[in-house]
Amino acid sequence: MKATAWSNSFYWVLRIFLGVAAALIVVAVIYPPQLVRGPAGATGAPGADGQDGQKGDKGQPGKDGDHGSKGNTGATGAKGSFWGGK
Q1: Which residues of the chain are under the pLDDT cut of 70?
Q2: What pLDDT sits at residue 18?
Q3: Which segments show compositional bias classed as Low complexity (predicted)?
């Protein structure tokens, strides 16, 4: 089986490609990437204030208070309120 011109050129291109890939791998192993950080910059200005939040739900009503004691007898001699003077 005789090699054609196309197969010869294909193998040459393949060899060049593999050689370049091997060279890149060697360079990557010898010179690994290093991260160099500079000094920290100044702090920025504070942002604008946000909007107020929504109001919460209304609370439950409290318990009714105890009834007070009846008052003392007034000048007319009536005891209690006007409507229930017993």
Answers
A1: 1, 71-86
A2: 98
A3: 40-51
pLDDT of residue 82: 64
pTM: 0.38
Residue type, 59: G
**Would you call 21 helix, strand, or coil by DSSP?**
helix
**DSSP string computed for 20-85:** HHHHHHHHHHHS----------PPPPPPPPPPPPPP-PPPPPPPPPPPPPPPPP-TTS--S-SS--
Question: Burial code of 39-60, b = ≥16 C-beta within 10 A, e = fewer?
Answer: eeeeeeeeeeeeeeeeeeeeee
| 79 Cβ contact list (under 8 Å, min separation 6) | 70, 71, 72, 73, 85, 86
Q: How far apart are CA 16 and CA 9, in angstroms?
A: 11
Q: Is the dihedral of CA 74, 80, 83, 84 positive or negative?
A: negative
Extents of the domains making up the chain: 1-32
